Amino acid sequence: MSTPSKATAPSHRLLYRGSLSLSDSYLQLDGLSFSTKVNDIHSSPALLNNPLALMLESMRGRPLHHLGTVKVKETWVDPPGDILVDIHPDAALTRIYFENIFCLSPVTSANSRTEYGVRVSLTENNDPDTPDLLIYGELRDAPASSDPLPSTSSTTPKTLHLLAARILPGPPPTPTFRMPRPDDPTPRRPPPTFSAKRKRDGAGLPFDLTSTSKRAKGDEKGKGKASAKDGEDAVRKAAAEVMLRMPKPGRNGAASSSMPNMKALGKDARVGVKKDVFKVPSVPVRSGSGRAGQESDVFGVVSGEPPDVPMGDDGVHKKNKMAVKQAVTKTLAKHGITKTHEEFHEMYLTCYQGASFAMRRRMKIATIDAPTIARFVEAHVQLYVVDAPS
After folding, report:
1. How many whole angstroms from its chain centre is CA 84?
2. Measuring CA to CA, which residue among 156, 154, 115, 120 is closest to residue 138?
3. Is residue 179 scored above 60 in pLDDT?
4. First to last CA, the chain
5. Of 130, 158, 132, nearest to 143 (Cα)?
6. 3-class secondary-structure state, position 258
7. Cα 142 from Cα 343, distance rounded (Å)
8. pLDDT of residue 40 exceeding 50
9. In whole angstroms, what is the distance from residue 24 CA to residue 18 CA?
10. Which string of DSSP letters, residue by residue, matches 28-74?
11. Rounded distance, CA 275 to CA 277, Å?
């Protein structure tokens, strides 16, 4: 019975297969295919660094656009990237077109390239941001054949290869070594043997594996070969003992070793208490301030008013407010504005607030005498009632 042979790896990668549309015709030059050489499985980084290969990969399913012919020596192109162009044998129109451009005149240039090349656009509207590509011919040594064609020439036979390159706006930059990027795959060397047994790590076990093996070897020397079953039973018993005596959470040695040193933190430190509250120590009240009974913190005296304003008695303030209200009611009644008047409420509030604001600096300090209150109230009533335009 014969052993099936392994499938050989492909030598080329197909980048694009499609047609070339003409600008002023409905005809298409079909049967074109672009490919590149693939030496081995490790050539994928070279393909990723080839911009033209990536551009052609993204053009699958869309036609290319013919722009005309240009002189190869007057065009800046990428260094040779071995993007090969092939024409299907049945695409007669495409073969005739490229034969008329590349095969009618001899190749006499120093770099063995044809005089003219075909300029191709990747976009329909000839986008300037997208570089065009150039299809040109180049003479290369013909591969060795077991049945060579008869020829009278003594020179080495050469074959015309169709190549594609990206058109550049200027001279191509000098090739530089690209630094590795974070997203590049890390090259790894496979292990020498996959069948080698993994060495067991004995860290964390309550027994020494090396001592067990040594005892087994000693038993083999003195009493003959020890059975493998006894060693497995010992390991199983030790594992069961570890599982049964699992340390309690928060009480084991590992947890206690990770706790900070209590002596280093001090006797007042409270570590690990769930109901612990962060407290700010209070600042003692400065002596001699003359403000006994007021609450203070690190930002100063806590009160509803600035500390420069002296605090008064609430009873005095209420008494003064009541006196102002009575004076406003009495003065408005003197001028014919009683409680039944339609504007009494607005007049009352306006005169009361105006008089209180005028005497605001003494309302909370001491009792205001009646003549002073009557003078301010009379002034507001005179302004809003007597002197008001009708």
Report:
1. 39
2. 115
3. yes
4. 128
5. 158
6. helix
7. 116
8. no
9. 19
10. EEEEEEEEEE--SGGGHHHHHT-HHHHHHHHTTTS-EEEEEEEEGGG
11. 6
